[in-house]
Amino acid sequence: MFLFRINSLFKTLRFRLMLWNISVVLISVVLTLIALRTSFRVTLLRETDQLLREDAIEIELAANAMHPDLNAIRAEIERHTASHKHRGLFVQLYDKNKKPFFSSLDLEGIPLPINPVRISNTLQTSEGFRFLDKSLQGKVAKDFLGFRVGSRMDLVEEDVESLSWLMLASMGFVVLIAPVGGYILAVQATKPIADIINTTSRLRPQNLTERFIIKGTGDELDRLTLTINSFLDRIAAFIQKKREFVANAAHELRSPLTAIGAASELALARDRTPEEYRETLGEISDKCDHFRLLINQLLLLAETEAGANIPHHVIQMDCIIEKSYDMFKDVASQQHIHFKLDSTSPALVLGEARQIQQVVNNLIDNALKFTPEGGTIVVELYKEASKIVLNVSDTGVGISKEDQSKVFDRFFQADRSHTKNAEALGGNGLGLSICKAIVESMGGTISVTSTLEKGSTFTITLPLVAPV
Ligand code: ADP
Hints:
Largest sheet: 5 strands, antiparallel
Bound molecules: adenosine-5'-diphosphate
Radius of gyration: 50 Å
Helix content: 55-70%
Structural class: alpha+beta
Low-confidence stretches: none
Shape: rod-shaped
Distance between the termini: 66 Å
Number of strands: 12
Number of helices: 11
């Protein structure tokens, strides 16, 4: 249990943020320490070198000024080294045979560097000392080869060490408070996420009313909250639509079932003649057809919307249009409606021939239903850029502006008060929603423009496939 808790703590964003914060602080502290220590050491070294060069100039000037009084030179050098004892300064004078002629005061028991003098006039470090072996110029050069002036390096190192300890102590304090700071930071940063988790866990499909509070800071978390809120709006609207759909479907399915039940009960209520039974069975068979059609439509709608295995073949749209035209031309002439076809060929699209045929048939069937005698229906197919456009226009009753936005909704039927024989037209308001689902599954669009009493034009666009 305890291990499980520890394990889940490690997985929290809060913990990881805290860990990141501590790591970043630690790395920066270590890097800063190294950088400060190095630059302090380099500065001290430069300063030491500069002082040694100045010492060398002073010694050379004094030696030349006091020559040939060797005692005076010695006294001056001893005075100079004594006054710079805190730096661990020493001076050695070399005779012409490179032998030390004189060494300044000993450095409290610390032996001076013993490596042989090399008059190179450059600074070097050896045996814990920084020193300069310099030749002598002027009259004093007659008696001496040169001199070595140097100072203790361990004093410089001591300074560097004590500063390093000081920095380490103050940075240690920063490292100690880093986890606390990191924790506070992590809690602050993850609090809105924790709120989102809590609220989300309360949401249920039956109750999607709750929304997240937008703080108005405009930061990423605010944007995330906004996105989740609008996503919830869409889900709520979707669920509401599904509910309405199920209610409508149940209602539509109940009507033919009730009719079948009523007809059979009536037939069974008493003995009937064979003609009466035949009539009732005919009625039942009609209702069954209606029932089957409705179920097929609902299944098709569900399949198309889910994108369930719709095979996409190359279809010749002009052939589809011609087939529909041939199918409806006799009905149109019986209803005394002018029926025209205006089509380009070939027009290739990707989809399922049976389904797109159903879309075209549905549009023409609707046009025939809502166009009075003497009217005109035109089916027009043309190519435009990378798509094909199909227009089915009629001079029928038209659709009001308000209803135009709803005709593609499931089970929607527009106001039919302007339509003659409205009762006989039937339908269930699913045809256009099926058309929309099929067309959209093919990557196309469907729309309508209409004027009441003048007519309607349904337009479909589909992506064109270039002939191979
Ligand atoms: P239905 O099976 O009821 O015709 P549709 O989905 O095919 O269902 O059509 C929905 C509604 O849109 C119809 O009930 C009708 O009111 C309106 N409609 C469709 N096509 C036309 C048209 N060409 N002219 C006028 N109204 C139309």
